[in-house]
Every structure is written in structure tokens, then in C-alpha cells.
UniProtKB/TrEMBL annotation:
Protein's UniProt name: Cell envelope-related transcriptional attenuator
Family that this chain belongs to: Belongs to the LytR/CpsA/Psr (LCP) family.
Pfam families cross-referenced by the UniProt entry: LytR_cpsA_psr
Domain called Cell envelope-related transcriptional attenuator: residue spans: 12-168
NCBIfam families noted in UniProt: lytR_cpsA_psr (TIGR00350)
Matching InterPro entries: LytR/CpsA/Psr_CW_biosynth, LytR_CpsA_psr
Domain of life: Bacteria
């Protein structure tokens, strides 16, 4: 799942979350890859992960994620800001819980682009697409446990879980109709067919979605803050201390041993 930021002709993938369904234990896992990861890119100098899509599209992004993290992808969804707003609104909004600092910040800054909607409050509330997008993009105020871009990716995972919970509350027929409405009304770039979507929905109805596991890369204590040249200036990136160790942790997260495996 890829969130595309399009400003001044730039096409940066500022949100990248890998969703993995495990049919052995009926679980869904979400792996967040932070945009500022400093990684190898085939045919280019090392750079931020979010720069890959603009250079070589989905094929290069697939290759880069596999080469650096050992994760083989078999489908993608790509949406820009407008499409994300539309999806949330078609769902009737989603519930988001804000801290006092988050609410105050969102009400006085332009992350919520429509001033009419800068009226969020502390606590849990139903938020529309414009409000949720602003929340997901916020990084200059702490979530209470994470700050900066780490906080932003945490917010994105929370919103995704809220969206999944809302979809899960529908019965199979209502869910299929809602997905058809979204796929017809919203511009989503994907290589997943409608028949595959319906198959995933059928599987999804049996998943234990009340306990979605998440993992963020880089891992705590496993990265270093770096500054690399960018024209006449320098830009901040996140270097992974031990890439092989990170690969192993990701593999164990996405492919846990079940009780059957241990016998």
C-alpha cells in the first residue's frame, strides 16, 4: 500500500506499508517502511526509499524492497492524497483518537487543508477524509510515544487499522458492495484484479483483525541518523546499522512459526 505525495511535479512515496495475510493462523500483519531509509537502488546512487518510485516506477520499487529487505511483493495499491480523502469519505469517515497536542496543532496548521474542518478535539471522534489525511501527514507534534516521521508512520498504521475495523464491521454483501463503490469511484492504481479483491475480502472476513500486528523499519536502536549531500545542502536520512539482522527480523515477523511448524 503506497501513499503518493505529488507536489511541484515530484512523485514521492511518503507512505509505504506492506500488508501480509497469514492464512495459517488467520492474522494480518502490517510492515511500515519509513520514507527516509537510506538504501541501495539498482542503477542509481544510494538514496531515500521514497525517491525510488519516481525513478523507476513500481518495478524498481519492488526490486528495491526485495533487494534491501528480502520482501517479495505480489500486489500493490497506490493512492494520492485526493484518492485517500475520497476513500475515507466513502466509508463515512473513520474513528481516530487525538491527544490534546495533536488536536491543537491540527486546528491551527494547514495539514487539514480545508479550514472549515479545523475543529477536531482531544479524544476519539469520527473524522472525515480531509481531517484524516491531515492527521496522517502530521509529524511535527508527538503522538505521545513517537515524534517526527516515526510519529507520522505510527499515525498511518493507526488509521489503516481503523479503516480495516470499519470494513470488518460490515457483512460480506455490504462489504463487497462498498468495495465495488470505492473501486469504481476512486482513482486507485493497482495490479490487483477485482476477482482477487473479492477473494481477499472473503479471506479477510475470517481474520483476527482485532489484533493486527505491526512492525516499523527501521527498528528501535537499529539505525543511525545521517546527513547526505543534496545539491548545495544536506538532507537527513536513516541508515540501517545491520541490514542482514533487519532482514531476519522482518522475515520472522512475516513468517512466524506456528504450533504445527514446531512439532
Amino acid at each position: 500500500m503506497i501513499g503518493l505525495e505529488e507536489f511541484d511535479n515530484a512523485k514521492n512515496t511518503d507512505s509505504m506499508i506492506v500488508a501480509s495475510i497469514n492464512t495459517k493462523d488467520n492474522t494480518l500483519k502490517l510492515l511500515s517502511l519509513m520514507r527516509d531509509l537510506y538504501i541501495d537502488i539498482k542503477g542509481y546512487d544510494k538514496d531515500r526509499l521514497n525517491s525510488v518510485y519516481a525513478r523507476g516506477g513500481i518495478p524498481l520499487l519492488y526490486d528495491t524492497i526485495y533487494t534491501n529487505f528480502g520482501v517479495s511483493l505480489d500486489g500493490y495499491l497506490l493512492v494520492n492524497f485526493e484518492a485517500f480523502e475520497q476513500i475515507v469519505d466513502l466509508l463515512g469517515g473513520v474513528n481516530v483518537t487525538l491527544t490534546k497536542n495533536e488536536a491543537e496543532y491540527l486546528n491551527v496548521h494547514n495539514y487539514i487543508s480545508n479550514p472549515v474542518y479545523r475543529n477536531v478535539v482531544e479524544g476519539e471522534q469520527l473524522m472525515n477524509g480531509n481531517q484524516v489525511l491531515g492527521y496522517c501527514r502530521t509529524r511535527k507534534v508527538s503522538t505521545g510515544t513517537e515524534s517526527n516521521d516515526f510519529g507520522r508512520t505510527q499515525r498511518q498504521r493507526k488509521v489503516l487499522q481503523s479503516i480495516i475495523n470499519k470494513l470488518k464491521s460490515k457483512n460480506m454483501i455490504s462489504l463487497a458492495l462498498k468495495m465495488d463503490e470505492i473501486l469504481s469511484a476512486v482513482h486507485i492504481t493497482t495490479d490487483i484484479t477485482k476477482s482477487d479483491f473479492k477473494e481477499y475480502l472473503t479471506i479477510g472476513m475470517d481474520l483476527a483483525l482485532d489484533n493486527i500486528e505491526t512492525l516499523r523499519v527501521p527498528l528501535d536502536g537499529k539505525y543511525i541518523d545521517l546527513k547526505i549531500p543534496s545539491g548545495k545542502k544536506y538532507k537527513a536520512v536513516l541508515g540501517i546499522k545491520d541490514l542482514e539482522e533487519t532482514k531476519e527480523i522482518i522475515y520472522s515477523f512475516l513468517n512466524p512459526k506456528t504450533s504445527d511448524d514446531k512439532q
